[in-house]
Amino acid sequence: MTGLLEGRAAIVTGGGRGIGRAIAEALAAQGANVIVADNGASIAGEDGDPKVVREAAEAIGKKALAFGESVASPGVAKQLVDLAVRQFGGIDIVVNNAAILRDAFVFRASPGDWDAVIRTNLSAAFYLINAASAVMRDQGKAGRGGKDGYDWGRIVNIVSSAGLYGNLGQAAYASAKAGLFGLTRVTAMDLARAQITANAVAPFAATRVTDIIQPANEAQKTYKERALKIGAHHVANLVMALCSPAGRNITGQLLGVRGREVFLFGQPRPVATLQAGAASDLTPADLAQDLSSKLGGQFTDLTTDLEAFNTEPLV
After folding, report:
1. Is residue 2 part of a domain?
2. pTM over 0.85
3. Exactly one of 133, 161, 177, 223 is catalytic; which is it?
4. Known catalytic residue at 173
Protein backbone atom coordinates (compact mmCIF):
# COMPACT_ATOMS: atom_id res chain seq x y z
CA MET A 1 0.00 0.00 0.00
CA THR A 2 1.20 3.50 -0.82
CA GLY A 3 -0.38 6.90 -0.42
CA LEU A 4 -1.81 6.13 3.01
CA LEU A 5 -0.62 9.53 4.27
CA GLU A 6 -0.87 11.52 1.07
CA GLY A 7 -1.23 15.23 1.75
CA ARG A 8 -0.10 14.98 5.35
CA ALA A 9 2.94 16.68 6.88
CA ALA A 10 5.28 15.11 9.41
CA ILE A 11 8.26 16.06 11.56
CA VAL A 12 10.74 13.40 12.68
CA THR A 13 13.46 14.48 15.10
CA GLY A 14 16.68 12.53 15.08
CA GLY A 15 15.65 11.55 11.56
CA GLY A 16 19.09 11.56 9.98
CA ARG A 17 20.13 8.10 11.06
CA GLY A 18 18.96 4.79 12.49
CA ILE A 19 15.40 4.46 13.74
CA GLY A 20 14.53 8.08 12.99
CA ARG A 21 15.62 7.75 9.39
CA ALA A 22 13.68 4.50 8.96
CA ILE A 23 10.56 6.25 10.27
CA ALA A 24 11.07 9.26 7.98
CA GLU A 25 11.55 6.96 4.99
CA ALA A 26 8.38 5.01 5.82
CA LEU A 27 6.28 8.16 6.23
CA ALA A 28 7.51 9.57 2.91
CA ALA A 29 6.91 6.24 1.16
CA GLN A 30 3.26 6.48 2.25
CA GLY A 31 2.91 9.96 0.77
CA ALA A 32 3.62 12.25 3.71
CA ASN A 33 5.80 15.31 3.36
CA VAL A 34 8.49 14.91 6.01
CA ILE A 35 10.80 17.37 7.70
CA VAL A 36 13.85 15.41 8.78
CA ALA A 37 15.19 17.24 11.83
CA ASP A 38 18.68 16.28 12.95
CA ASN A 39 21.74 18.34 13.88
CA GLY A 40 24.07 15.44 13.09
CA ALA A 41 25.61 15.31 16.55
CA SER A 42 27.41 12.34 18.06
CA ILE A 43 25.59 9.95 20.38
CA ALA A 44 26.81 12.19 23.22
CA GLY A 45 25.21 15.24 21.59
CA GLU A 46 28.49 16.79 20.46
CA ASP A 47 30.14 17.81 17.16
CA GLY A 48 27.07 18.49 15.04
CA ASP A 49 27.36 17.77 11.33
CA PRO A 50 24.76 19.34 8.97
CA LYS A 51 25.72 16.93 6.20
CA VAL A 52 24.00 14.08 8.04
CA VAL A 53 20.50 15.47 7.66
CA ARG A 54 21.08 16.88 4.17
CA GLU A 55 22.20 13.50 2.90
CA ALA A 56 19.29 11.75 4.60
CA ALA A 57 16.71 14.12 3.08
CA GLU A 58 18.28 13.80 -0.37
CA ALA A 59 18.20 10.01 -0.12
CA ILE A 60 14.55 10.00 0.94
CA GLY A 61 13.64 12.15 -2.04
CA LYS A 62 11.37 15.02 -2.95
CA LYS A 63 9.00 14.36 -0.06
CA ALA A 64 11.71 15.21 2.48
CA LEU A 65 13.05 18.51 3.73
CA ALA A 66 16.19 18.83 5.90
CA PHE A 67 16.28 20.81 9.15
CA GLY A 68 19.70 20.86 10.75
CA GLU A 69 19.26 22.61 14.08
CA SER A 70 18.78 21.07 17.53
CA VAL A 71 15.16 21.29 18.67
CA ALA A 72 16.22 21.49 22.33
CA SER A 73 14.94 25.05 22.70
CA PRO A 74 11.40 26.44 22.51
CA GLY A 75 12.30 28.97 19.80
CA VAL A 76 13.79 26.40 17.44
CA ALA A 77 10.89 24.01 17.99
CA LYS A 78 8.47 26.74 16.97
CA GLN A 79 10.62 27.54 13.92
CA LEU A 80 10.38 23.89 12.92
CA VAL A 81 6.58 23.84 13.18
CA ASP A 82 6.33 27.17 11.36
CA LEU A 83 8.47 25.69 8.56
CA ALA A 84 6.07 22.77 8.21
CA VAL A 85 3.12 25.15 7.99
CA ARG A 86 4.84 27.34 5.38
CA GLN A 87 6.10 24.49 3.23
CA PHE A 88 3.31 21.95 3.57
CA GLY A 89 0.27 23.89 4.79
CA GLY A 90 0.17 22.34 8.27
CA ILE A 91 1.52 19.66 10.58
CA ASP A 92 -0.20 16.32 11.12
CA ILE A 93 2.41 13.96 12.56
CA VAL A 94 5.20 14.51 15.09
CA VAL A 95 7.70 11.79 15.97
CA ASN A 96 10.04 12.66 18.83
CA ASN A 97 13.00 10.36 18.34
CA ALA A 98 16.09 12.53 18.99
CA ALA A 99 18.15 11.39 21.96
CA ILE A 100 21.67 11.49 23.34
CA LEU A 101 23.55 9.35 25.86
CA ARG A 102 25.99 10.41 28.56
CA ASP A 103 26.18 7.41 30.83
CA ALA A 104 27.73 7.28 34.29
CA PHE A 105 26.92 5.77 37.66
CA VAL A 106 24.92 8.20 39.79
CA PHE A 107 27.82 8.71 42.18
CA ARG A 108 30.11 9.78 39.31
CA ALA A 109 27.70 11.54 36.95
CA SER A 110 28.17 15.17 35.93
CA PRO A 111 25.22 17.50 36.60
CA GLY A 112 26.05 19.18 33.29
CA ASP A 113 25.66 15.87 31.46
CA TRP A 114 22.38 15.25 33.28
CA ASP A 115 21.04 18.63 32.14
CA ALA A 116 22.11 18.03 28.53
CA VAL A 117 20.39 14.62 28.35
CA ILE A 118 17.17 15.86 29.95
CA ARG A 119 17.12 18.89 27.65
CA THR A 120 17.62 16.85 24.46
CA ASN A 121 15.64 13.72 25.30
CA LEU A 122 12.71 15.19 27.24
CA SER A 123 12.47 18.97 27.11
CA ALA A 124 12.91 19.07 23.33
CA ALA A 125 9.97 16.70 22.93
CA PHE A 126 7.81 18.96 25.10
CA TYR A 127 8.85 22.05 23.15
CA LEU A 128 7.86 20.43 19.87
CA ILE A 129 4.59 18.98 21.17
CA ASN A 130 3.76 22.36 22.69
CA ALA A 131 4.27 24.17 19.39
CA ALA A 132 2.76 21.54 17.11
CA SER A 133 -0.32 20.64 19.15
CA ALA A 134 -1.54 24.23 19.18
CA VAL A 135 -1.40 24.25 15.38
CA MET A 136 -3.03 20.82 15.17
CA ARG A 137 -5.97 21.95 17.30
CA ASP A 138 -6.50 25.02 15.12
CA GLN A 139 -6.30 22.86 12.00
CA GLY A 140 -9.05 20.64 13.35
CA LYS A 141 -11.29 23.63 13.94
CA ALA A 142 -10.53 24.87 10.42
CA GLY A 143 -11.57 21.56 8.84
CA ARG A 144 -8.17 20.22 7.73
CA GLY A 145 -9.21 16.68 8.70
CA GLY A 146 -12.54 16.73 6.91
CA LYS A 147 -16.15 16.84 8.05
CA ASP A 148 -15.67 14.26 10.82
CA GLY A 149 -13.13 16.30 12.78
CA TYR A 150 -9.38 16.39 12.62
CA ASP A 151 -8.72 12.64 12.83
CA TRP A 152 -5.14 13.03 11.63
CA GLY A 153 -3.12 14.45 14.46
CA ARG A 154 -0.57 11.88 15.58
CA ILE A 155 2.21 12.24 18.15
CA VAL A 156 4.62 9.36 18.70
CA ASN A 157 7.33 9.54 21.34
CA ILE A 158 10.21 7.09 21.10
CA VAL A 159 10.98 5.98 24.64
CA SER A 160 13.19 3.15 25.93
CA SER A 161 12.95 0.04 28.05
CA ALA A 162 15.71 1.68 30.13
CA GLY A 163 13.09 4.16 31.32
CA LEU A 164 10.75 1.33 32.31
CA TYR A 165 13.17 -1.17 33.88
CA GLY A 166 16.27 0.93 34.50
CA ASN A 167 19.80 0.08 33.44
CA LEU A 168 23.18 0.43 35.10
CA GLY A 169 24.76 3.83 34.68
CA GLN A 170 21.85 5.38 32.77
CA ALA A 171 20.30 7.69 35.35
CA ALA A 172 19.89 10.64 32.96
CA TYR A 173 18.82 8.61 29.92
CA ALA A 174 16.36 6.42 31.85
CA SER A 175 14.90 9.42 33.71
CA ALA A 176 14.38 11.33 30.46
CA LYS A 177 12.70 8.36 28.79
CA ALA A 178 10.50 7.67 31.81
CA GLY A 179 9.54 11.33 31.81
CA LEU A 180 8.77 11.14 28.11
CA PHE A 181 6.23 8.42 28.80
CA GLY A 182 4.60 10.62 31.46
CA LEU A 183 4.49 13.42 28.90
CA THR A 184 2.86 11.01 26.44
CA ARG A 185 0.06 10.17 28.86
CA VAL A 186 -0.74 13.80 29.64
CA THR A 187 -0.53 14.76 25.96
CA ALA A 188 -3.02 12.02 25.11
CA MET A 189 -5.40 13.29 27.78
CA ASP A 190 -5.04 16.95 26.87
CA LEU A 191 -5.61 16.33 23.16
CA ALA A 192 -8.28 13.63 23.28
CA ARG A 193 -11.15 16.04 22.59
CA ALA A 194 -9.28 17.34 19.55
CA GLN A 195 -8.99 13.74 18.23
CA ILE A 196 -5.19 13.92 18.31
CA THR A 197 -3.49 10.77 19.52
CA ALA A 198 -0.26 10.40 21.49
CA ASN A 199 1.56 7.12 22.05
CA ALA A 200 4.96 5.93 23.25
CA VAL A 201 7.06 3.30 21.50
CA ALA A 202 10.00 1.49 23.09
CA PRO A 203 12.14 0.15 20.23
CA PHE A 204 14.54 -2.78 20.13
CA ALA A 205 16.72 -2.48 17.05
CA ALA A 206 20.26 -2.02 15.81
CA THR A 207 21.19 1.63 16.40
CA ARG A 208 24.17 3.73 17.44
CA VAL A 209 23.14 2.97 21.02
CA THR A 210 23.51 -0.78 20.56
CA ASP A 211 26.72 -0.23 18.62
CA ILE A 212 28.41 1.41 21.59
CA ILE A 213 27.38 -1.16 24.21
CA GLN A 214 30.55 -2.45 25.85
CA PRO A 215 29.53 -5.85 27.27
CA ALA A 216 30.67 -6.39 30.84
CA ASN A 217 29.66 -10.05 30.90
CA GLU A 218 28.49 -12.87 28.66
CA ALA A 219 24.80 -11.97 29.06
CA GLN A 220 25.38 -8.43 27.83
CA LYS A 221 27.47 -9.73 24.95
CA THR A 222 24.63 -12.01 23.88
CA TYR A 223 22.12 -9.17 24.23
CA LYS A 224 24.16 -6.97 21.92
CA GLU A 225 24.56 -9.73 19.34
CA ARG A 226 20.80 -10.27 19.30
CA ALA A 227 19.99 -6.56 19.16
CA LEU A 228 22.23 -6.05 16.15
CA LYS A 229 20.11 -8.53 14.19
CA ILE A 230 16.97 -6.40 14.43
CA GLY A 231 16.30 -3.90 11.66
CA ALA A 232 14.90 -0.44 12.35
CA HIS A 233 12.20 -1.00 9.72
CA HIS A 234 10.18 -2.97 12.28
CA VAL A 235 10.00 0.13 14.47
CA ALA A 236 9.00 2.26 11.49
CA ASN A 237 6.21 -0.20 10.68
CA LEU A 238 4.68 0.19 14.15
CA VAL A 239 4.96 3.97 14.00
CA MET A 240 3.24 3.88 10.60
CA ALA A 241 0.41 1.82 12.09
CA LEU A 242 -0.11 4.42 14.80
CA CYS A 243 -0.01 7.26 12.26
CA SER A 244 -2.39 5.61 9.81
CA PRO A 245 -6.13 6.30 9.68
CA ALA A 246 -6.70 2.92 11.34
CA GLY A 247 -4.71 4.11 14.37
CA ARG A 248 -7.21 6.82 15.28
CA ASN A 249 -8.46 5.03 18.40
CA ILE A 250 -5.06 4.11 19.82
CA THR A 251 -3.88 6.74 22.26
CA GLY A 252 -2.11 6.98 25.61
CA GLN A 253 -0.51 3.57 25.09
CA LEU A 254 2.97 2.24 25.76
CA LEU A 255 4.09 -0.16 23.07
CA GLY A 256 7.32 -1.99 22.35
CA VAL A 257 8.60 -3.53 19.15
CA ARG A 258 11.37 -6.08 18.75
CA GLY A 259 11.52 -7.43 15.23
CA ARG A 260 8.16 -9.04 14.50
CA GLU A 261 7.10 -8.91 18.15
CA VAL A 262 4.95 -6.01 19.29
CA PHE A 263 4.44 -5.57 23.03
CA LEU A 264 1.68 -3.75 24.85
CA PHE A 265 3.17 -2.77 28.21
CA GLY A 266 1.14 -2.51 31.36
CA GLN A 267 1.20 0.89 33.03
CA PRO A 268 1.93 1.57 36.71
CA ARG A 269 -1.14 0.90 38.83
CA PRO A 270 -1.46 -0.30 42.43
CA VAL A 271 -0.94 -4.05 42.66
CA ALA A 272 -1.52 -4.47 46.41
CA THR A 273 -2.78 -2.52 49.42
CA LEU A 274 -1.53 -2.61 52.99
CA GLN A 275 -4.08 -1.78 55.67
CA ALA A 276 -1.86 -0.04 58.20
CA GLY A 277 -2.80 0.35 61.85
CA ALA A 278 -3.77 3.59 63.53
CA ALA A 279 -1.13 6.28 63.23
CA SER A 280 -0.73 6.42 66.99
CA ASP A 281 0.05 2.69 67.18
CA LEU A 282 2.22 2.23 64.09
CA THR A 283 5.92 3.00 64.32
CA PRO A 284 8.10 3.42 61.22
CA ALA A 285 9.79 0.14 62.12
CA ASP A 286 6.41 -1.62 62.25
CA LEU A 287 5.43 -0.16 58.89
CA ALA A 288 8.72 -1.24 57.30
CA GLN A 289 8.25 -4.73 58.74
CA ASP A 290 4.69 -4.93 57.39
CA LEU A 291 5.79 -3.74 53.97
CA SER A 292 8.44 -6.44 53.78
CA SER A 293 6.43 -9.29 55.24
CA LYS A 294 3.04 -8.59 53.67
CA LEU A 295 3.94 -7.02 50.33
CA GLY A 296 7.51 -8.16 49.80
CA GLY A 297 6.43 -11.05 47.58
CA GLN A 298 5.08 -8.53 45.09
CA PHE A 299 8.03 -6.13 45.07
CA THR A 300 9.52 -5.40 41.64
CA ASP A 301 13.04 -6.77 41.41
CA LEU A 302 16.11 -4.95 40.07
CA THR A 303 16.20 -6.69 36.70
CA THR A 304 17.70 -4.38 34.07
CA ASP A 305 16.18 -3.95 30.63
CA LEU A 306 19.13 -5.81 29.09
CA GLU A 307 18.36 -8.81 31.30
CA ALA A 308 14.60 -8.64 30.80
CA PHE A 309 14.85 -8.83 27.00
CA ASN A 310 17.82 -11.15 26.68
CA THR A 311 16.00 -13.69 24.51
CA GLU A 312 16.17 -14.49 20.82
CA PRO A 313 14.15 -11.94 18.77
CA LEU A 314 11.77 -12.77 15.96
CA VAL A 315 13.25 -11.20 12.84
Report:
1. no
2. yes
3. 177
4. yes
